[in-house]
Design goal:
It is a single chain. By secondary structure, this protein is mainly α. The chain has a domain of 64 residues. The strands form 3 sheets. A 3-stranded mixed β-sheet has the order 1-7-6, covered by helices on one side. Strands 2-5 form a two-stranded antiparallel sheet. Strands 3-4 form a two-stranded antiparallel sheet. Strand 3 and strand 4 form a beta hairpin. Helix 1 runs antiparallel to helix 3 and helix 4 crosses helix 9.
Length: 405
């Protein structure tokens, strides 16, 4: 099964089955088993894996290893932060079994839930010192991939990082500044956590911990990594993170929303972000019913330079339609401005939604709609998303992303 009409989730499942059932000798570059370094971190329980001489047991271990490799958060994050392009197409591997995917009336679109395919392998670190514009700092790829030490390209852009932001707490509490960046601005695969209201920030952490904030596609690694890293945090660490990020306010427009009928062909570049294809397969294609959000410089974005912006392509007419839905409700929803403010920068405990990544905001609407996100304040969003179609949600998030944060 292949082709444009087959959902990426199906393609990934078929890839796994075909990979596991292939009894031919593996090529030298294949990596069917995790590295000894990962094994030493306790991500695999070797005592439970006994490879017997029988062909049946060997096939079983092969299947288990392939599936486990997809789910290894640490392995995937190390691979995902590398410079370069991921081979293959984007698509979620598995849906949350508790999500009501029939509720929205459409399946979760791959462009909103981009995920690296399991055949992606990060380029090796050759010891080269990496640089970004307007910075005197250098890092190797290994240093850039260390989620207990986020690369700080522009220290002048933020206050001094406390331990929870700059180093985390090994072995599981990753530095908050790694995924969300030292500024807290995040990227399309995760949240902008800068300048959030304290009640919202603290409740969001509580929802992650108690299992009520989950995604429709839970094995997107930035999401599952967030869940894994946040579980052991203490109340003091969470409050320290809030106090730090509250000092950082995004004052620039990182997402340029552009209406277009044709967009670059894209694939996941290795950090759960779509990027234009360069070389074989590059070109333009109709946008259809999609949001295509790409970094203005994919390589620098993968190096985690937060000064690099994004271009968000949306279908023609999205901004006008989105403005009507956001400001008036359009006769089918509750206008966003009632709770989030006329400027969409939040009111009291209600968070700002202006100037955020469009696909990030889209995922939140979708997760509210199908019930995967059902935390303490989620009931307030139910009547908002209940009657929204795919086009409505594209239009709303296009408009909110276009506003000044």
């Amino acid at each position: 099964m292949s082709g444009p009409d087959v959902h990426p989730a199906v393609r990934v499942r078929h890839w796994l089955l075909n990979k596991a059932s292939d009894d031919t000798p593996r090529q030298k570059h294949a990596r069917p088993f995790p590295s000894r370094k990962l094994l030493s971190r306790g991500l695999f329980d070797n005592a439970k894996v006994r490879v017997l001489d029988s062909q049946t047991m060997r096939n079983f271990v092969r299947v288990a290893t392939v599936i486990a490799a997809v789910l290894l958060v640490t392995t995937a994050i190390v691979a995902g932060q590398a410079v370069g392009s991921a081979s293959g197409v984007s698509g979620p591997a598995k849906l949350n079994p508790k999500a009501d995917i029939n509720a929205p009336g459409f399946p979760p679109p791959y462009w909103a839930y981009p995920v690296n395919l399991p055949d992606y392998v990060a380029p090796p670190d050759k010891g080269e010192k990496m640089r970004v514009p307007n910075s005197n700092v250098t890092y190797t790829l290994t240093q850039i991939r260390d989620f207990f030490s986020p690369p700080d390209w522009h220290p002048e852009d933020h206050p001094a990082m406390p331990p929870i932001i700059g180093t985390g707490r090994k072995p599981q509490v990753w530095a908050c500044g790694y995924c969300h960046l030292p500024t807290g601005w995040g990227k399309p695969e995760n949240a902008n956590v800068s300048n959030l209201p304290e009640p919202y920030f603290m409740q969001t952490v509580a929802d992650f911990k108690n299992g009520t904030r989950r995604g429709t596609v839970p094995d997107i690694l930035p999401h599952s990594g967030m869940v894994a890293a946040i579980m052991p945090t203490t109340e003091a660490e969470v409050r320290e993170a809030y106090q730090y990020f509250a000092k950082n306010k995004l004052t620039m427009q990182r997402y340029k929303v552009t209406e277009a009928t044709m967009v670059p062909k894209t694939k996941v570049q290795g950090s759960w972000v779509l990027a234009p294809i360069v070389g074989t397969g590059e070109g333009m294609e109709p946008i259809g019913q999609r949001i295509i959000e790409v970094p203005n410089d994919p390589i620098l974005t993968t190096l985690r330079d937060w000064r690099i912006g994004f271009t968000t392509y949306v279908p023609p007419g999205s901004l006008k339609k989105g403005e009507a839905l956001v400001t008036t409700g359009g006769g089918k929803t509750v206008q966003c401005t009632i709770c989030h403010g006329s400027d969409l920068r939040g009111i009291g405990p209600v968070p700002p939604i202006a100037g955020r990544s469009a696909i990030y905001t889209f995922r939140q609407l979708y997760d509210f709609k199908d019930g995967a996100r059902h935390g303490a304040w989620s009931a307030m969003m139910k009547p908002v998303v209940q009657n929204l179609t795919l086009d409505d949600m594209i239009a709303i998030t296009a408009y909110t992303s276009s506003r000044m944060p």
